[in-house]
Amino acid sequence: MPRVIHFEVHADDPQRAMRFYAEVFGWQFERFGQIDYWSIQTGDAASSGIDGGLMPRRGPRPPEGQPVNAYPCTIEVDDIDLYLKKVATADGKNVVPKMAIPGVGWLAYCHDTEGNVFGLMQPDPSAA
Quick one: DSSP state of residue 126? Predict the structure, then answer.
């Protein structure tokens, strides 16, 4: 069956967005040729997960309070409370508070510095 193999972050300010993701998650960025596009390495090739890209936003930023109209990416973390602090320190925002997904783990949704929604998931089978 088809799987997601790549994701893209759209940014009003690509340099600011790259600083955010590097500071919070340690992601690495490399310019792709001569165009305004950067490849994102989210981990080593031996671990599960996907890599992506970052590009300037095409069109206006979605207004605050608009329902999510995208495929938000969820990032697995080992300590969701620590990463919620990292997000805030890097000028991001927690927009849906940490909640238990019974038998799965802890989930929260955040905005990056560009207003994009992403999830944080701490696996924990005892979450309730």
Answer: T
pTM value is: 0.89
pLDDT of 75 above 80? yes
Q: Which residue has the higher pLDDT, 33 or 94?
A: 94
Contact yes or no for 94/108 (Cβ under 8 A): yes
Strand partners, 53: 8, 39
Range of the domain at 105: 7-59+71-123
Helix axes 80-89, 14-25, angle to 10 degrees: 150
Residue 11 inside a domain? The answer is yes
Give the angle 27-123-90 at the CA atoms, nearest 5°.
35
Edge to edge, the sheet with strand 93-101 lists: 73-76, 117-123, 105-111, 93-101
For the chain, give the mean pLDDT: 94
With bands split at pLDDT 50, 70 and 90, how would you rate the model's confidence at 11? very high
Is residue 65 situated within a structural domain?
no
**Beta strands across the sheet bearing 7-11:** 7-11, 52-56, 38-41, 28-31
